Amino acid sequence: MRQSTLFTKTRKNAPADETSKNAEYLIRAGYIYKEMSGVYTILPLGLKVVQKISNIIRNEMNAVGGVEMQSTTLQSKEVWDKTRWSDDVVENWFKTKLKNDTEIGLAFTHEEPMTAMMKNFIHSYKDLPVYPYDVRTIFRNEMRAKSGIMRGREFFWKALYSFSKNKVEHDEFYEKITQAYKNIFNHVGLGDKTYFTFASGGTFSKYSHEFQTVCNAGEDLIYLNEEKCIAVNKEVYNDEVLKDLDLNKSDLKEVNAVEVGNIFSLGYKFSEPLELNYKNAEGVEEFVFMGSYGIGITRLMGTIVEVLADGKGIVWPESVAPFKVHLVLLGEDVEVKNKAEDLYNNLIAKNVEVLFDDRVGLSAGEKFADADLLGMPWRLVVSKRSLEAGGFEIKARNDEAGRIVTENELMSLIS
Amino acid sequence: MRQSTLFTKTRKNAPADETSKNAEYLIRAGYIYKEMSGVYTILPLGLKVVQKISNIIRNEMNAVGGVEMQSTTLQSKEVWDKTRWSDDVVENWFKTKLKNDTEIGLAFTHEEPMTAMMKNFIHSYKDLPVYPYDVRTIFRNEMRAKSGIMRGREFFWKALYSFSKNKVEHDEFYEKITQAYKNIFNHVGLGDKTYFTFASGGTFSKYSHEFQTVCNAGEDLIYLNEEKCIAVNKEVYNDEVLKDLDLNKSDLKEVNAVEVGNIFSLGYKFSEPLELNYKNAEGVEEFVFMGSYGIGITRLMGTIVEVLADGKGIVWPESVAPFKVHLVLLGEDVEVKNKAEDLYNNLIAKNVEVLFDDRVGLSAGEKFADADLLGMPWRLVVSKRSLEAGGFEIKARNDEAGRIVTENELMSLIS
């Protein structure tokens, strides 16, 4: 993509009320735009990141048997009445009304509508297990929203709901999706900072599990055993739990962390009140055993920025970067410009994703500052000086200095 | 995809209150699920259709310079106050409130937020033209919603907004996107029934233009000149307009139609009140000249069903079908089953999209009825009889009878 055709621009400053690093950098670089507190437009470069993260998640969900669908934002009160419609139970509902004054809700999750819908499709043990999932926008009426895209009033997530015959079948899937989650956080570049964390369970399970990424801006406190690669959320940090998990206080480190994913055994919590049952192989009616599994996609994007950015801007891992290469043309010399244009076309022909800074009237310093702020993995400079030195200057975003490569060397390095 | 792993099932009947053909078939076939009137969950097969239509639209939008982004659902009152916040102006707003009692709206369109946002990015004539677009969910609080997914309270659309230096630049783009829209409706199989239609304009243009698909279930009345391939919407059907367009009443046919797309010259309607201006080449401030261009994606899906379905079910054009081939295995014979499994794997290896009806315990009649209802372009039967006759029976959805082909013949026909 030519930077000259991109309507967004880098900014010197984020809005004054924006205190989080992720929002500051993402706004300044033109990835997102703030509509109101906790509500951000995803700009073209940001959408590319959201799509890359979403597709990494989709691949892992499909691999464990997930089937993608798209549930609705508008929610029927009837479906929720038996469980969580009351604002005393769920305080961050957004609600609105139809013209005939019927109250409706805006989706903050989908356990209830999924369970109600599945009554149409699940009747026999032959219909189980099934794993529908959603990649969609979620709405939560947060009292405060000060963490940028790490806690939005409107945000993207992936949510999968599992419907199993019984606890044994459920537990097998729970193991599989735990591994799928680990693959996802490894793939997006947060694997070494993300810990499998024990958190509060419910009626049907001792614990739920969170994936917590160690990060100063995190709103959670966890107690981390680095050697065992597990952690305990503050909410269940007590002697009984530590004993149960065979952990010693002295081996644990208190750190701030961001909950980037969670997995939850729901058991019959929703299938019982909403009467989702099936006939087992013996012809006896049983309730379906459920689980739910979330990943905040925009939160993950914000966490990647928080954890990996440096003083100059964002540092995207290659797996989620909007473009692999930021090709920077310096100067107005026609010969240099032609070389840059050729290189741009050759990279595209090799299916390399390139952002081409073809803007005129900017200094080398301005272009380099923008490249650092935008954070593509590779900066590739074409200038009179680079051509005289025998080619193009390539520099990884995290390296201090670049080096000159020929086009052949470049292609074998990049594509 | 194996049909046995798909959690949806076909149904004998749609909900009793569902009167439209599109919703009846789409619900019975398991493409959508009704949450409430005008609000439908998009099930896995339906999501594939939505994605195919969306990608056809994206390709055409990108080709005319469109850049995709993702705007927000939650809308700030401040942005809309100067134009259309009042329910007297827009009667189908959904509105809700933040915890601090601030009123906010749910997106029914995005001219205002787009215009407000562009003030951050458009300053000079060098920044123009730009063409951001959205593929997203839209919310409209319709009094009645009885046309299935052709008029939803929550629905998918594509909306592009054009920002041009002046009317001349705008008109050039308007021509281009008109052609892009024609390409889209051709591509999804509605080209021969979709007419460029003159409708009411605004302060800055005599007419807007709609793309109307002739269809009995359509809510609009248009006056059609088949020879000239244009139509006039009832709302501007009068002597003056007919004279202006050089049309004679006697050559026009009154028909019902569905508005599947519209294009609109907005001029300064939003840039003036929201103060979106730029410095022209002479250094003089001018307002940006705008346009907007919508296509209802779920409406288009519904219209395809309405227009092309027959008495047995849906008939998808290949371009939007969830799968190209519906592979139907008949009987429980192991040898036949193995042949079908091999064929399934071979088709996938050739990148053919296949839905494999591997369900057991259903009669041939039941499987054929489901295949007709689901509407894939090709039905491919593997049975003892087909193997004895020398191969597999292939039948186009619209053909009465199939014919036997060998695997080689099949592959050259299909892939």
UniProtKB/TrEMBL annotation, chains A, B:
- Keywords in alphabetical order: Aminoacyl-tRNA synthetase, ATP-binding, Ligase, Nucleotide-binding, Protein biosynthesis
- GO biological process terms on file: prolyl-tRNA aminoacylation
> Gene3D superfamilies this protein is in?
Anticodon-binding domain (3.40.50.800), Bira Bifunctional Protein, Domain 2 (3.30.930.10)
Q: Name one Pfam family in it.
A: HGTP_anticodon
InterPro entries in the cross-refs: aa-tRNA-synt_IIb, aa-tRNA-synth_II, aa-tRNA-synth_II/BPL/LPL, Anticodon-bd, Anticodon-bd_dom_sf, Pro-tRNA_synthetase, ProRS_anticodon_short
Which ranges form a coiled coil?
A: none
Q: Where is the Aminoacyl-transfer RNA synthetases class-II family profile domain?
A: 38-317
* SUPFAM superfamilies (alphabetical): Class II aaRS ABD-related, Class II aaRS and biotin synthetases
Q: Name one GO molecular function term.
A: ATP binding
Q: What is this protein called?
A: Prolyl-tRNA synthetase
